[in-house]
Amino acid sequence: MPSSLLWAVDVYGRVYSLSTAGQQWEHCRDAHLEFKRVTAVQQCCWSIACDHNIYLYVHASEVPIRYQEETYENQRWNPVDGFSDRLLPSDRWQWSDITGLKHQPLGDFQLPSENWEWEADWYIDENFGGEPTEKGGWTYAIDFPATYTKDKKWNSCVRRRRWIRYRRYKAQDTWVKIPSEQTESLPDPFNDITCGGWEITEEPRGCLALWAVSLQGKVWFRCDINHHNPEGSVWEEVPVPGEVVQISCGPGDLVWAVLWEGHLLVREGVGRDCLKGSSWVTVESPSPGVGVVHVAVGVNVVWAVTKDHKVWFRRGVNSHNPCGSGWIGMVGEMVMINVGLSDQVWAIGFEDRAVYFRQGVTASELSGKAWKVVSVPRDSERSHSSASASSLQSAGCFFGGEVRLQSQASMLSDADAETERAGGEVVPTPEIGDAPKPRIPKVTSDSFISELVSDREGQISRCDVPPAGPSIPEEDHPEKELEDRASPAQVLSPSQSGGVDPQWSNVDLEEAQTHLTSGPGGDAAETSSLSSVATYNLALEEPYGLDEPPKWAWVSGGGCLVECHTQLNWFNSSTSTALNSSMQAMSLSITPAQTAAWRKQIFEQLSERSKREMENFMHYEQAIEQSVWVKKGTMQWWRDWKPHKWVDVQFALEQFSGVEGNKDGILFIYYTFNDEKKYLHMFINEVTILVPVLNDSKHTFAIYTAERTKQRWPMRLAAATELEMHDWLALLSVSCCDSRGIQGPPSKQAIWSVTCKGDIFVSEPTKELEASPYPTPCAQISLGVVWGIGYDHTAWVHTGGYGGGFFQGLASSTDNIYTQTDVKSVYIYENQRWNPVTGYTNRGLPTDRYMWSNASGLKECTKNNTKPPSPNWTWVSDWTIDYAVPGGTDREGWQYAADFPASYHGNKTLKDFVRRRRWARKCKLTTTGPWQEVPPIPLSDITILPCGPKSTVEQVSLWAISNKGDILCRLGVTSLTPGSSSNYGSSWLHVGTDQPFKSISIGAVHQVWAIAKDGSAFYRGSVSAQNPAGDCWYHIPSPTGQKLKQVSVGRTSVYTVDENGNLWYRHGVTPSYPQGSSWEHISNNVRKVSVGPLDQVWVIADKVQGSHSLSCGTVCRRLGVLPMEPKGHSWDYGIGGGWDHITVRGNAMEAPRIVMPSLTDNQTATRPLQTSNQPEMNGNPVGC
Amino acid sequence: MADDKDVLRDVWFGRIPACFTLSPEETTEREAEPYYLLLPRVSYLTLVTDKVKKHFLRVMKAEDSTEMWFEYEGTPLKWHYPIGVLFDLHASNTALPWNVTVHFKNFPERDLLHCSSNSVIEAHFMSCIKEADALKHKSQVINDMQKKDHKQLWMGLQNDKFDQFWAMNRKLMEYPTEEGGFRYIPFRIYQTTSDRPFIQKLFRPVSPEGHTLTLGDLLRELFPAAICAEDEPKRFQVMIHGIEPLLETPVQWLSEHLSHPGNFLHISIIPAPSD
């Protein structure tokens, strides 16, 4: 998993980030200013600096942020000049937007801010709806506005062409000021900022909601922030019923704000159509009389902090009920709290100003278990290990006014109790003069059992204290922020003079003090201007500058991804930096445990021992004979003869050791026929395929042998439960591997394929087999370099290890096994029919499909009965309406049609009688396997240069398409040491295109072909080993009327598949004319094609005879492919069903004489969870 | 790079060559040949010596075929200690094969437990695992297992099926990442010089300050004599599975990798050879 960042600001306004993989706070040195607030999301971080301007930090990405500007040049024909720019007076502008209504000459386009730059000059787009146009890019029509064609006809009176130009966002990895363009409407500076909302809508991508609060308590919303416009456009004021002090916006649709009075506001009506929401609802503070000072929201949680620093958790909050149902008091005293990704919680402790992480927050237990202090050093203090105990103690005096509550803070973790107590003893000395008397006994007595009571009493008792104490005069600390800092005082004073209980001013001040961000001078000014008891003692502060544990003011985890299997190295049992460094020193000697002396010693001694005790005695008899091992079970079997039906059978696997020590086995099926007991058997070494079969009602799998493949009649078995089926599959698959003596990683020549359930199978051309249990729907291989893509578009590179998943602890290597996760969505459809009385209802006709169904309508799928694809997947979200459906939807996600099944469209017409909408729910898999993640860009397709067996290529060409359609070229991938980090490459190079792409393939001599999302084909010119990215794109016309879907290029052959399942071969491809001349139809019903380095053609075909009962496609191989006859002549039988992806691009075996490569399978781990500690134990493999 | 998993295999497949000779006290019909066998270090004597029994019963009178027991150089061998422990404790640093004397008469009731059938061994083995899991996970893991899972552990040991055993045993070796190890380490320290059968105490793998505790820490607390100062001559050998791990080895790692199938880490402390 890629590391992500936790951001925080210390009390001096310095910004730090802490990586989930790191062990120290990194100072963000780029920030020249001090910052007050930060709010982070994964792609960027927003902040308010002490100059009260808003700053943005966009993380650099290998795919640049580009925005396409376009304008149209319009011309009309006249008999004199032909086509010219002289238009009729009634016509549109000569330069206009696509509608013709807006005048847009090229010169009018300006960069939106100085953070952008032009990529190149304007140029003409010669691509028209997926088809190349003639030079000049003109499209013709009879008149404006009309239908344009690329061909000029006799009646073409007008023409137009499209000019495009890209601008690029250049201010990455740096803080840039967001220009305050509306100074007149923003009279007062910002005070708080929060960013979120990215889960509400996919469109436009990268869409964010940014909320800000001004010092006067007004709320502002930043419009139009998305991927192409990271800065947003304008601030819009959102009316609020009171003065807001703080606001929080979650990843979803939750937005909560805190009012001065201590009540909370909840934004309602936030949705994909209206990120801003529509109205506010008030929620009372959790404890009467003690207002809320801080709120933080996540997807399904709300946390709040009240003025007495108590932490509260809001029960029952979700998208449907944003207000929740009630408050639960939590342990701990905090000044602020922040909710990050997956509802993880961070907070800043009231007493020690340390950053706390809430441990044990899971989807089922959102409130977590305990606070754990994040105690890692800052980068500046790494060498500074001399933090003495005395400085730690005096740190307790740092915040003069608050030391008194120390005893409560030690509740938080027993770990720092010692430190705290030490601090507590010191406290009274400097403070005793101005500390209120009633309070002292409570502090010195170490009893914090009656925490709640004493705390509240303490607050009240303190209010009676007159403002006293050594407040520091402003002029002692002339700081340039003084005039800024005066404003909170002004804001405060009305509420003080407004007859509010004096308690408020006092406690408010504590609130204000939690944001001590603008440097010591500013704080001093603030406190003194408010003349409070809480004294920020400057005299004490300086000497302890670096020795103290950092004091934090603000933390933001919005970009920080912590999952249950993430191991954080943030926690030590002591807050002392001295201990920290000693811990690190110690862990350094153990962490690279593979090299530790003790481990080496054990390995050496063990092998010595074995030699000593066994070498000369191998002729002795073994005490335990290797015996037959039998596993038995009951199952159902699809009877081989008519009438076919499921019959109950006894199923047994007998395993025994063969002659040469390899294991073999026999499968027995005991059944009863005509009251007679019979059995049937199958040798494990004859099994070629073992595949789970999708079946609605039963957990079935099929076993093939070569003979049964020919007969198209596999042995079909159904287990009682899915778990049982997976157990059996895992066992059978291990036996299959055992019987063929397969161990270790697959060879370079292997054929890789993926089932529709996402499991990977590897087939070796030498009739050996090995299965790799990681779900990845796309894999490409060459020269031992294997990359795969998960359902969630994460790229993975095969590490050359083997095992993982269910192999855990058995036959698996630990060196190259990593934790893998994948997320995908499960979809169900809600169907409705219109009737004249009640409109659309869920009452359908008797002939209709289920009102809750799958896409085909044949299977009932309700929200409750739909399960994740296999027991290894778990739900991670609730059901939500999916708006990203082909054909479009209306505002509620409905798609309309005349009847089921039909083509659906997004707007309701008079002829529509039915409608449906798609619901999606995310599920997640966590397993382990020999794959390493390639962050950070999500990919949708990938291709690697195929090579002959003998060729050696140092640099492996690898091209990919991001899930947004950008084409990328990977640099630095080598095959010198397969499975090592060199397969991983170094970086992505973005290859500019005018449109998004969906499929790409590179041939043996660097021919790169790609398919754009509009179905057109492109050839990349001049790609070579020296020029891996090529120079320009050539648009290749598609087969008439067909939109292409996928392309695969072998040694010379180019094959494509179109959206209607036709397979096309490119004719006339020669070295001098690599684009070829025309498309030739080869076959239909093809779903995917893979062409190997010897031009072998393998496809996944649908509707292959005899396998119709098996879902998802059959693997077929093209027969008769010869160097002079690259098209071949026919297809072979095909194997099995249930395949989703295949790649033969690594298979460069000459003369493939094998009848049918054998494939076997196995399922993913049946117990993949809880195993994440395995790789960690054996040395954390991060950092390759 | 060698793999931690290989350690598990090495431990499981450790074998001790043994030469069984019938005690001269036994009366035989004809002279008994010695019997040679490779004994699995992790198993129990009475579990793997069916062949020995058969071999010697052939030369004995039928009426003398009472319970078989073993002795090495005058010490009766406790069958309920793993074979490897018995060997390390009594016979390490001696010439191989290990000469074990077989007795049928005069069962030493004071020293040995009776072992009438394999079910007695099974009961002993399972109680070890349960005790170990009580220490490691407050019995949570073992209690979550089904009867057949328990059986799988036992059958794995009985039939010497590494994969079968470890497929189940790995669950017993898991622990929450944030805790850095088991609750307590199940271990036993054996010594020849004391009457005490073994030392067993509650010992955590991580100190309250968060330090990883090592074999050295364990011995310092429970058997300080085993740790010698630098200038002193070595007085004791600390043996686990016939090897002497360095004192810096973390006990958690030892517990995960060098425990016997009964999930206990058996540490034998023997006087260092004088040479």
From TrEMBL, chain A:
InterPro entries listed in its UniProt record: Beta-propeller_rpt_TECPR (IPR006624), Peroxin/Ferlin (IPR006614), PH_domain (IPR001849), TECPR1-like_DysF (IPR010482), Tectonin_beta-prop (IPR051513)
Biased composition (Basic and acidic residues): 474-486
Location of region: Disordered: 410-442, 455-504, 1158-1184
Main localization of the protein described in the UniProt heading: membrane
Domain of life the protein comes from: Eukaryota
GO cellular component, one term: lysosomal membrane
Domain (PH): residue spans on this chain: 629-739
Biased composition (Polar residues): 490-504, 1159-1177
Keywords in alphabetical order: Autophagy, Cytoplasmic vesicle, Lipid-binding, Lysosome, Membrane, Repeat
Molecular function terms, GO-annotated: lipid binding
A biological-process GO annotation: autophagy
Localization annotation: Cytoplasmic vesicle, Autophagosome membrane; Lysosome membrane
SUPFAM superfamilies: PH domain-like (SSF50729)
Domain Peroxin/Ferlin stretches: 64-125, 137-170, 821-882, 893-926
Entry similarity comment: Belongs to the TECPR1 family.
Record-given protein name: Tectonin beta-propeller repeat-containing protein 1
From TrEMBL, chain B:
MF annotations from Gene Ontology: Atg8-family ligase activity
Domain annotation Autophagy protein ATG5 alpha-helical bundle region: ranges: 120-174
GO process annotations (BP): apoptotic process; autophagosome assembly; autophagy of mitochondrion; cellular response to nitrogen starvation; immune system process; negative regulation of programmed cell death; piecemeal microautophagy of the nucleus
Keywords, comma-separated and alphabetical: Acetylation, Apoptosis, Autophagy, Cytoplasm, Immunity, Isopeptide bond, Membrane, Ubl conjugation
Residue ranges of every copy of the Autophagy protein ATG5 UblB domain listed in the record: 184-269
Chief location category: cytoplasm
The keyword Acyltransferase is annotated on this UniProt entry: no
Subunit structure: Forms a conjugate with ATG12. Part of the minor complex composed of 4 sets of ATG12-ATG5 and ATG16L1 (400 kDa); this complex interacts with ATG3 leading to disruption of ATG7 interaction and promotion of ATG8-like proteins lipidation. Forms an 800-kDa complex composed of ATG12-ATG5 and ATG16L2. The ATG12-ATG5 conjugate interacts with RAB33A; this interaction is bridged by ATG16L1 and promotes ATG12-ATG5-ATG16L1 complex recruitment to phagophores. Interacts with TECPR1; the interaction is direct and does not take place when ATG16L1 is associated with the ATG5-ATG12 conjugate.
Similarity comment text for this entry: Belongs to the ATG5 family.
Protein's job: Involved in autophagic vesicle formation.
UniProt cross-references to PANTHER family, sorted A to Z: AUTOPHAGY PROTEIN 5
Protein's name in the database: Autophagy protein 5
Organism, scientific name: Cyprinus carpio
Gene symbol of the encoding locus: ATG5
